[in-house]
Amino acid sequence: MTVEDSDQVAQRRANLEELKKLGVEAYPRRFDPQASIEEIVRAHGGKTREELEASPITGRTAGRVLAIRSFGKANFLVLSDGRSKIQVYIRQDALSARDFSIYKLLDFGDWVGVEGKLFRTKTNELTIWASQLEFLAKCLLPLPEKWHGLQDVEIRYRQRYLDLIVNPDSRRVFEVRSRVVAAVREFLIGRGFLEVETPMMQAVPGGALARPFVTHHNALDMKLYMRIAPELYLKRLTVGGIERVFEINRNFRNEGISTQHNPEFTMLEFYWAFADYHDLMALTEELLPGVARAATGTDEVPYGDATISLKAPFRRLSLREAAREAASKTLGAEIPAGALRSREAAASIASRLGVEVAPAMGAGKITAEIFETLCEAELVQPTFVYDFPTEVSPLSKQKPDDPDTVERFELYIAGVEIANAFSELNDPAEQRRRFEEQLRQRAGGDDEAHAMDEDYVRALEYGMPPAGGEGVGIDRLVMLLTDSPSIRDVILFPLMRPKAGATHGSPVDE
RNA sequence: GGGCCGCUAGCUCAAUUGGCAGAGCAGCAGACUCUUAAUCUGCGGGUUGAAGGUUCGAUUCCUUCGCGGCUCACCA
Fold this sequence. Notes:
Elements: H1 7-21, H2 37-44, H3 49-54, E1 58-70, E2 74-80, E3 85-91, H4 97-104, E4 111-120, E5 126-137, H5 153-158, H6 160-166, H7 168-190, E6 194-195, E7 201-202, E8 214-217, E9 222-226, H8 231-239, E10 244-252, E11 264-273, H9 277-296, E12 300-303, E13 306-309, E14 315-318, H10 319-331, H11 343-353, H12 363-374, E15 383-389, E16 398-399, E17 402-413, E18 416-423, H13 428-443, H14 454-461, E19 467-473, H15 474-482
Helix pairs in contact: 6-7, 7-9, 7-15, 10-12, 11-12, 13-14
The chain binds one RNA strand through helix 1, strand 1, strand 2, strand 3 and helix 5.
């Protein structure tokens, strides 16, 4: 039996028909609430019974019916606007016969508008004593149970609207998310950054090492890629003289799905002319605690069993040193400094650690693998991991005294990479060499290696100012700030495999 | 893609060794003029994710498939 033909739905349809017979419009055009439920509760929730009697207040609001408690001639509704709830007292002798008939035909989930004086019941609950009841929309399908709510995570993700109706915590997560994005914008705009939008569909997908989604433009008959990063476009804008620029938008990567990965995810990227990666660390130490306070009220957030302090300064850890120390500890033998610089030594250490080494991987990539395997999960409190091998960083600027190392850091919190930043490579000749090296990697079977982008190199030839650039995973930041274990908990409509027979989202224009 | 786990009424969950598929909430009928998980009385509600197999008999055991969760790999 499907939901749609259950007896409960038949009953709801019958109640709707009864309403129509009474001359009640089933789907009226509008209602004019004087205030939302949230606003009424905020404005008057602190008033005592005596205060409400002394200076009567009329409330006019609307919401979804989440509970009905009936006593014959005296009845209570609970209305919700998704954030707050308010009780409505439905008394037969206070309402017109029509309005009381509407009450009797209500089902859980229906939308109604009410008007009446605010008072406190014997049990001291703020309540609207309804003098008017308007029917606003029918809920034809039964809602999840009122006490346990909706537990089935699959339905929570597929039918987010149900989750939002019955699980206030879910609503809270997306309100925090909205405040995070707003706070990031405010922070950057306040420091002179210009917000822009760059192409989501690109002929050459670049700016990250990842596999793209492919699509096709009919009129131009050309292959297009959903972007994996906005990086190369934003840096073109710094060439154009936009010295501080940022974008908050979606990236698309055709890779696995996990608690930390959704195929489309939201990224902040910003570029700051005349700054380097040290400046970016300092800015990040301001940005994150500020955003946390704006979104949640605190910069010390619970996450799982841990309490994460986002207060500056963050710990700093050299990637090679972290990998060397962790490997020494795991193997029980001190690895000499510099050993990870040699491919032979690095490969030997990796194989002893059980880290897989592909033939095309150089010392740098092997070191990065060792770091990810041994260290990542241990970095619970905010930690800048800095100075990456050049091999894994084709767009970053080298250190002046060490061409095998670039000025790059990643910020780890709760074992997860939250941000990735570097001093931007702006030497076109060196950039071309890096792209060519990536092409060799690609020829060697690495289909995540970076593609050549001739126009980007040309842009650098016009002169890009020295700049620092950083990407921050907004979804992961929101996970952290809402204590959410899965990225799907912070994305309203995460990608799900369609159910067999489902028509939702099927293409109609082919 | 691999491994492990799950899928039973609208929702949340039971069901002993393989032996009549149940409860609470929701729904329906009734009582009740301040309840708040309201209460009380009575009544309906199932292709146990799908298809096969074993068996006198399958929610239970076996096979395949679907969807999901966790995890490993890849990645941010």
